[in-house]
Design a protein that fits this description.
Layout: H1 3-20, H2 39-43, H3 63-80, H4 91-103, H5 107-117, H6 123-153, E1 162-172, H7 179-189, E2 193-196, H8 202-216, E3 236-245
Parallel strand pairs: 1-2
Antiparallel strand pairs: 1-3
Amino acid sequence: MSTKRGWALASRCMREQRRTGTIRSLDGRQPVWNFPIRIKSVLILPLFGALIVGLAYGADDAGLAANATDQFAVDLHRQLATADHNLCVSPYSIETALAMTFAGADGETRDQMSRVLHLPKDGEAVDASFSSLQRSLEEMTRKTAEIATESKEHGGPSEPITLAIANRLFAQSGYDFRSSFLALTKKYYGAPFETLDFIRNADQARQHINKWVADQTRDRIRDLIPAKGVNEMTRLVLANALYLKAPWASEFSEVHTKPKPFHVRGGATV
């Protein structure tokens, strides 16, 4: 299946799910019942990303996850980018959240996700690679703190790169999830398992998840899930939140800076 056709079929599948409540395979044949969560929960995951992250990794086993994310980012850009609008997304956040979903998928669903996410079907290798990549990114953050300390002594940039990555599972209380899946997401993705009651109070659950996202992103992303974004049919929300703050490589001198109009496309000023 070509990437373009795969995206088109995925969109058709999602539209049908909204209309009928049934998740079908991407080729339009039999319903897929082995998918561990409702597709509506998956659709909110891309919004957790706020930035395009340059993936820097040192460990060899992180390469699988990094390369897959790079390829997925190109596919995603082709689908979302337009000539008239800016685009700001986090392919790493999306790929990580869907990798957790991939860990719970099976059969034809897993085959299709493997193609779209550019991941091999060997689940253990995939999960270990994402774990290694996250550790490498976190190590990069620690190293920049040391560099910033040395730089400050010589009058250079003194602010380190701050990168915080958090994963979490928000699940329906009392629902029977496979213990092996919960153990896997905790081991490789550091994703704690938290139960909420979507059935009795979906909006309260939504607000709780939104608060978690706001806390993880230093209040940069608020009210992520809109009203009715989850409902009594929601059983699991897999969340990835990413926060990045980095200093300029060459900082502007405050004494040489003053307010001036900023010209955007078309000649307008802001």
